[in-house]
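Aim 2 progress update. The chain analyzed this quarter is reproduced below.
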Amino acid sequence: MNPRRRAFSVVIVALVATPCSAQSDTATRIPPHLCWRGRPLPECTSFWITEFGVDAVLWSTQTRVRQNFGGGDVYDYSARDFDSRFVWTVGPMFNTGPRTALGGTLSISPFGEGYRAAIEARRRWWTSSGLALDLSAGALRMDVPSRTNFSSRDEFGLTAGAFIVGGDLINVNGRVDLLVTGGKPRVGTSLGLGGGSYVALVGSILLGLLIVAYISAGPID
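Predicted structure tokens:
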């Protein structure tokens, strides 16, 4: 082949290959994709934590409560500072790498005559088996019964949890709560079972229907 023609062919091939290479590089850039059920990259760039579950308290500090019913009737007893509860959790997560995600959650639980609320940072590590490990930590607010009457007061502290998540549909978790206000530290540990995504939605609906049915039934004579 003529040297000039060979050089020209090399230039043409290079010019054609350059856009193709650029297109290939562009294809590796993952477009934003928000998921409801969490998955690692490249399927999701971000997703929502939507969980519903039950936390069973394993151990809790106790507070001595004195209730005066009037007429000289005084009732003393010890009450656990933490008790088992339903938990609803929601929050955004962002996949920061092929196997990692970072975000935050808000959790709400009915608790006695009040509620428990926590705002936490959450870190996730995806595994190739479809499981994920989550660690969370943040601020805690909870209603705590008064020691001397029937009212309750809000106290504040810290909370931390660890989760083993299966397919973002079910999780097993352990948690430690610490209240640092109110004159004395209060500590509780719990073990929880929860569902995410579709499982959380179905569980919340079923619980809501049970509550409505219970309220509609009214008191039993």
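The mean pLDDT is 81. The chain has two domains: 3-30, 35-217. These observations will guide the mutagenesis experiments scheduled for the next reporting period.
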